[in-house]
Amino acid sequence: MTMRAVFPGTFDPIHFGHIDIARRGCALFDDLVIAVYDRPLKSLLFSPDERMELVRTAFEDDDNITVQGYRTLTVSFCTSINAQVLLRGLRVFSDFEHEFRMALANRRLAPEIDTVSLITSEKHTFLNSTTVREVASLEGDVSSMVPDFVQKALDEKLSQTRASEKEVYNSLRD
């Protein structure tokens, strides 16, 4: 039997911590689907298509990783693609409480799906997408946090945002 796992998230943007968890998950499961959620209850920088493209680029050389978008309950998505496992990453102790509650809720909704959590590599414990976006938005160096192609996408997206903000500011001054 093929063991399929789903690694869900918004990946806005994907960073080295995500990549680390996914690659380590590949060693544990036959097939890993990185599921890019397109309807989170938070503001996003990149569109669902842009996020999926960045994730695909990150794993273009990984044979047992596929990327799919979804907009349902995560466990419903898992069931629809015959996945047996939800893969999650834990960075810090506060992640544990949130992930524990989510795993219990998911287990109640879909008892046939197990949650496996991997502890992040020490060098990535500080890293999350919000930090990446904030540092990049302030023109800080994110090269140690994301691959080059993600840094380029951030630079392009944020320069568009800065240009729009500058136009609004200038129109308000006039």
Question: Low-confidence spans: pLDDT under 50, at least 5 residues?
Answer: none
* Strand arrangement across the biggest beta sheet: 3-2-1-4-5
* Sheet having the most strands: 5 strands, parallel
Assembly of the depicted chains? single chain
Structural class: alpha/beta
Properties at a glance:
single chain; 5-stranded parallel sheet; 6 helices; Rossmann fold; globular; alpha/beta; 174 residues
Tell me what the structure shows.
By secondary structure, the protein is an alpha/beta fold. It has a single domain, classed as 3-Layer(aba) Sandwich (Rossmann fold). The chain has 6 helices and 5 strands; from the N terminus they run E-H-E-H-E-H-E-H-E-H-H. It has helices spanning 16-28, 48-58, 74-80, 93-109, 129-137, 148-173, and strands spanning 4-9, 31-37, 65-70, 85-90, 114-119. Strands 3-2-1-4-5 form a 5-stranded parallel beta sheet, with helices on both faces. The longest helix has 26 residues, at 148-173.
Topology record:
Layout: E1 4-9, H1 16-28, E2 31-37, H2 48-58, E3 65-70, H3 74-80, E4 85-90, H4 93-109, E5 114-119, H5 129-137, H6 148-173
Summarize the structure.
With 174 residues, the protein is an alpha/beta fold. The chain contains six helices and five strands.
